Amino acid sequence: MTVVLNGEERSCREGWTLADLVADLRLTGRRIAVELNRNIIPRDEYTSYRLRPGDEIEVVHFVGGG
Fold first, then answer.
1. What is the pTM for the complete model shown?
2. How far apart are CA 33 and CA 23, in angstroms?
């Protein structure tokens, strides 16, 4: 199955959840925001949303600095 992640096509397994994708990207535990089809998804919903072909996902990392 193919989704669009940060503007680029990416293959992922059928039945994957948003949490599976975040884990595969090695972003678990990091400060991120996930937008799915133009909607911000709360972290507690990552495990309940199953990815669908053509989903458009944007992942933003928060970086501290000074």
1. 0.87
2. 14
